[in-house]
Backbone:
């Protein structure tokens, strides 16, 4: 008998409820369907295959691109009592793992894509019982994505040799092109696409054309006393703006990849500990930083893409309290972005162009910013959110819209 999933969620993982679309994803997996789950970082993608791995008979084989990532997952799974192992070049207990796998003693087996696509691995799978294929970081299969991994392309024949085993692809980063490509590359039907959980309702979005950026940032800082991040496009720009902010008496640090590692670490630590510090940084800052009370994220210039914008603004308000994301963009930003497009190779050009157009759509819209953002990620949000500049205050400056249109089409 199949155990009650809710009971299992509680007894194995200690969670009281499914979050967001987890239940919908798990139900499809349990029904033997093929699914692509697009959920933001931190939404709980792992649970979507870990829970079925415990509920189903046999082993869930997880394809994951990074050994370090696999070992983190292994630790977490083992800690809650899931029978898990990794099969990578870094493991010297491979023979033992293979025996456990064949004997049906594993719930989860993590493997790297290059191993998964090797011929002898297919034979191994044929001699064990596979309950589910989970393809983590599935955007790696697409040339449209940011992290194309040729090895991921070799997964399809492997998956197809086990047509009755359900497959679950998971990713946080997928614009429409990448998503469609993942479906095709991994043989998942369109109805198997589940996207959700991208909304960050406590973040208030605002986007303005640049005028005097230093002044605009100074005005923003005056309204925002808590800790915050200002993203700047150049390393020199971070130090210059940090000096200007320091002159106003506000605690401030700079962060970019050109600083000495000890200085970077010290500045980051100071920011994480502070209740009112401004971090002026390039996009090198933010990955893996856990500071729940960031009250604002400002962009002094256009971010690289809608996805980058979402990631970067998403560092604000993780504690659920109100937070602000304010972007200042200029014509020069679009000119530079178009310049970069001219250097992109033919394979990536349509994707890159679509990404820039989407960014243009976000800055030029007179409608709800949140709706544009969420639609970009494939959700179906309401027309208005009541918590962005355009919803709170109908745009007075028709100029901004026309400017953006002009720069995009030029
Ligand atoms: P993702 O891979 O989507 O970035 P993870 O799978 O690493 O996210 O999960 C992020 C965090 O959320 C983990 O600490 C996990 O234990 C927690 N989590 C997942 N599902 C639930 C849930 N239903 N209730 C509470 N916490 C959850
Ligand atoms: Mg994950």
Residues:
């Amino acid at each position: 008998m199949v155990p009650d999933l809710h009971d299992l969620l509680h007894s194995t993982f200690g969670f009281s409820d499914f979050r967001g679309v987890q239940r919908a994803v798990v139900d499809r997996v349990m029904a033997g369907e093929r699914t692509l789950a697009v959920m933001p970082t931190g939404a709980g993608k792992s649970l979507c295959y870990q829970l079925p791995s415990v509920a189903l008979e046999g082993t869930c084989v997880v394809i994951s691109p990074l050994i370090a990532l696999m070992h983190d997952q292994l630790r977490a799974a083992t800690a809650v009592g899931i029978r898990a192992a990794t099969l990578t070049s870094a493991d010297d207990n491979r023979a033992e793992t293979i025996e456990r796998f064949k004997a049906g003693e594993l719930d989860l087996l993590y493997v790297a894509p290059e191993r998964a696509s090797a011929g002898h691995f297919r034979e191994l799978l044929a001699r064990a019982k596979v309950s589910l294929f989970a393809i983590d970081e599935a955007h790696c299969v697409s040339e449209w994505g940011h992290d194309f991994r040729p090895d991921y392309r070799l997964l399809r024949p492997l998956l197809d040799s086990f047509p009755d085993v359900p497959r679950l692809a998971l990713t946080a980063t997928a614009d429409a092109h990448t998503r469609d490509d993942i479906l095709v590359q991994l043989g998942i039907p369109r109805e198997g696409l589940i996207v959700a959980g991208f909304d960050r309702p406590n973040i208030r979005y605002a986007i303005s054309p640049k005028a005097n950026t230093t002044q605009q940032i100074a005005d923003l800082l005056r309204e925002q006393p808590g800790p915050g991040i200002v993203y700047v496009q150049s390393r020199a720009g971070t130090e210059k703006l940090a000096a200007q902010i320091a002159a106003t008496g506000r605690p401030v640090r700079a962060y970019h990849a050109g600083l000495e590692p000890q200085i970077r670490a010290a500045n980051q630590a100071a920011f994480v500990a502070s209740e009112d510090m401004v971090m002026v940084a390039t996009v090198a800052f933010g990955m893996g930083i856990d500071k729940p009370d960031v009250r604002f994220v400002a962009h002094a210039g256009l971010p690289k893409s809608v996805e980058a914008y979402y990631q970067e603004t998403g560092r604000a308000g993780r504690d659920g309290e109100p937070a602000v994301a304010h972007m200042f963009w200029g014509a020069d930003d679009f000119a530079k972005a178009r310049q970069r497009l001219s250097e992109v190779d033919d394979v990536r050009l349509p994707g890159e162009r679509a990404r820039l157009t989407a960014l243009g759509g976000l800055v030029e819209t007179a409608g709800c910013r949140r709706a544009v953002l969420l639609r970009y990620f494939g959700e179906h949000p309401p027309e208005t959110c009541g918590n962005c500049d355009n919803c709170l205050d109908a745009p007075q400056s028709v100029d901004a819209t026309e400017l953006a249109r002009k720069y995009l089409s030029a």
